[in-house]
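As promised in the previous annual report, we have extended the structural survey to additional targets. Below is the entry for Small ribosomal subunit protein bS20.
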Amino acid sequence: MANTPQSKKRARQNERRTAVNKARRSRIRTFLRKVEEAIASGDKEVATAALRAAQPELMRGVTKGVFHKNTASRKISRLSARVKALG
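The corresponding structure token record, generated without further manual editing, is:
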């Protein structure tokens, strides 16, 4: 358990940051799920629109430190390839 005032403060800050990051990660996953559902339904226009909405959210997650840059790029790349493959 935290003993010094500094370590107590760091523990409080970590709790707050964890909550913020959890909410942000959940929001990003929701956007990704919408793209997945649009791909599963086979509607290319809806999937393209969902992907266009998800891309800035993912990259915002990168700038906020929730995801690594390469992870976000990989997800975007794979999703866009799947959307493109829709007839």
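The radius of gyration is 17 Å. Residues 6 and 12 are 10 Å apart (CA to CA). These points will be discussed at the next consortium meeting with the crystallography subgroup.
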